[in-house]
Write a structure and sequence with these properties.
about 350 residues, 18 strands, binds glutathione, binds fe (ii) ion
């Protein structure tokens, strides 16, 4: 199995990627709207096919990427039938299985934080994705979205604390940077829900949390009730891919362009070679028309570049020029991409070179 824990720092949300290595089928639990491009890049780089996005609940603090990923990658949206959300492809019933390759997750009803919360338990009960029902030494609040402290107490006891002690617990959020716990640990040490704590004590605790409402709540709940379909297309602006070239976005956060595209568009872009002069004039040569601006002085010399005409950065292998895209981005250049594979790939694929030796 392939497993990744991904994080959205804005909302302190965890997104989980679970894939079957043989069939390449992958699930994403609780993807975040603003992270859709990152998650799609990772799925692509790992060579996986997104089968379902799964929601643990209708979130109040961030918008789900379910709708966006469905449109980008053709995945299907799964959420509990009790969530009240529209626009999903699969409405999960308690104990329904969600397959990926030969593996599955079991949907366990864990209402209380919201009335439609589901947790997802891996087939061999080694991992549970508890959303906001059970956190690391905590739990989700119960003061809105039909939240109910008594229901949460009973859900956790019936559907989570019945799992083996060694079962790892991956929560929907953590506000202190903690990443994982286990059922056994939480039964002993959860300050709200440990086995030694009674239902009335728990209700007393939850009634006096004194938390402000999530900042995004008025936007997030209506959007999530539509599985993250934006009400206005302008919401998509930051996520629309650049159109000046067929760029790919890497999980490392870099926009890349392929050599064959550059070869056909040498005059449409500013080619910025960020190597040292002896490399630029050395045996590898350089891309015809490239401007030499070594990485060390790039920020100072960037004033020589136009902000209108797109920039393609180049170096030997594509590593220094990736960093150059980051520096140029910070200087306010919006249309910047890295030449994938640098001069090494450019030469291997036998594109035109100025200078250099054969
Ligand atoms: N400050 C955060 C609050 C987030 C929040 O209330 N999160 C919910 C989960 S959706 C929760 O249960 N928090 C529990 C806690 O903060 O103890 C925001 O504005 O988004
Ligand atoms: Fe929540």
């Amino acid at each position: 199995m392939i497993f990744r824990q991904l994080y959205d720092p804005q909302s302190s949300t965890y997104t989980y990627l679970l894939a079957d290595a043989a069939s390449r089928e992958v699930l994403l639990i609780d993807p975040v709207f603003e992270q859709a491009r990152r998650d799609a890049a990772l799925i692509e780089e790992l060579g996986l096919r997104l089968k379902y996005t799964l929601e643990t609940h209708v979130h109040a603090d961030h918008v789900t990427a379910a709708w966006l990923l469905k449109h980008k990658l053709g995945s299907r949206i799964a959420i509990s039938a009790a969530s009240g959300a529209e626009g999903a492809d699969v409405y999960l019933q308690p104990h329904e299985k969600v397959q990926f390759g030969p593996r599955h997750l079991e949907a366990r009803p864990t209402a209380g934080h919201t009335s439609g919360c589901m947790s997802y338990v891996l087939d061999d009960q080694t991992m549970a994705f508890t959303g906001d029902a059970l956190f690391i030494r905590g739990c989700g609040r119960t003061d809105f979205q039909n939240g109910d402290a008594r229901a949460l107490y009973r859900s956790v006891r019936t559907h989570l604390f019945s799992l083996p002690d060694r079962c790892l617990v991956y929560p929907g959020h953590d506000y202190r940077g903690l990443t994982v716990t286990s059922i056994g640990e939480e039964k002993l040490y959860n300050p709200r829900l440990a086995e030694s704590i009674g239902e009335n004590d728990f209700v007393g605790y939850m009634t006096h949390l004194g938390l402000a409402h999530p900042k995004q709540m008025d936007v997030a709940i209506p959007a999530n009730l539509k599985c993250g379909k934006p009400a206005q297309t302008t919401t998509l602006d930051p996520l629309i891919d650049p159109t000046w070239a067929p760029l790919t976005y890497t999980f490392a956060g870099i926009w890349e362009v392929q050599p064959h595209w550059l070869e056909e568009h040498l005059r449409d872009v500013q080619i910025v070679d960020v190597r040292e002069p002896d490399e630029f004039n050395g045996p590898l040569g350089h891309v015809p028309g490239a401007k030499l601006l070594p990485l060390g002085g790039l920020v100072a010399s960037a004033t020589q570049l136009s902000k209108e005409k797109p920039i393609v950065t180049v170096c030997r292998s594509g590593a220094r020029s990736a960093q150059a895209t980051v520096l140029l981005g910070k200087c306010g250049f919006e249309k910047v991409a890295n030449l994938s594979g640098g001069m090494l790939r450019w030469r291997t694929q036998r594109y035109a070179v100025e200078g250099g030796v054969d």
